Amino acid sequence: MELVKQAGWSADPPALYHFRTHEGDEVDLVLERRGGALVGIEVKSAATVTAADFKGLRALAQIAGRRFRRGIVWRERGQEADFVVRAGRTLTAIEVKSGRTRDARAGLAAFGAAFGCKRQLLVGGDGIAVEDFLSRPVEHWVRPG
């Protein structure tokens, strides 16, 4: 797995785990930092992401409590949001594009409709300039409005 190889480059590499409950909820990859912070990554190849795809991440968040920092559902094709960030009770979906495409916001709209995510950011293309996005901390862009 590519993430295992890349973790070796880090000055403070995370520990990598798989998470599964007795009920069968699972997360494909869990990264744990030395201080105990956890990030869950769920990898999907289906054409659409459904609420059920977040079940394992919700179980991990419930069990880990404050140690759980974020969960990511990653897909390889179709409509998707590249990143989802939670700040307080607000979810923000972020799509990153390297050029202008007519369906650049399709993944954001689909994610927003499916999961009630009202804040959506397009970075690059016809959205926020990449340089502007990178010049400020992510908290600037995702703080509750």
Summary, kept brief:
With 145 residues, the chain is α/β, with parallel strands linked by helices. The protein has helices spanning 2-7, 55-64, 106-115, 130-134, 138-142; strands spanning 15-20, 26-32, 38-44, 68-75, 83-87, 90-96, 119-123. The chain has two domains: 1-78, Trna Endonuclease, Chain: A, domain 1 (3-Layer(aba) Sandwich); 80-145, no CATH class.
Annotate the secondary structure layout.
Blueprint: H1 2-7, E1 15-20, E2 26-32, E3 38-44, H2 55-64, E4 68-75, E5 83-87, E6 90-96, H3 106-115, E7 119-123, H4 130-134, H5 138-142
Parallel strand pairs: 3-4, 6-7
Antiparallel strand pairs: 1-2, 2-3, 5-6
- What gap, in angstroms, lies between the N and C termini? 38 Å
CATH domain fold name of the largest domain: Trna Endonuclease, Chain: A, domain 1
What general form does the structure show?
Answer: globular
Poorly predicted regions = none
Number of domains: 2
What is the CATH C level class of the largest domain, in words? Alpha Beta
Polypeptide structure, described:
With 145 residues, this protein is an alpha/beta fold. It has two domains: 1-78, Trna Endonuclease, Chain: A, domain 1 (3-Layer(aba) Sandwich), CATH 3.40.1350; 80-145, no CATH class. It contains five helices and seven strands, in the order αβββαβββαβαα. The strands form two sheets. The chain has a four-stranded mixed β-sheet with strand order 1-2-3-4, covered by helices on one side. A three-stranded mixed β-sheet has the order 5-6-7.
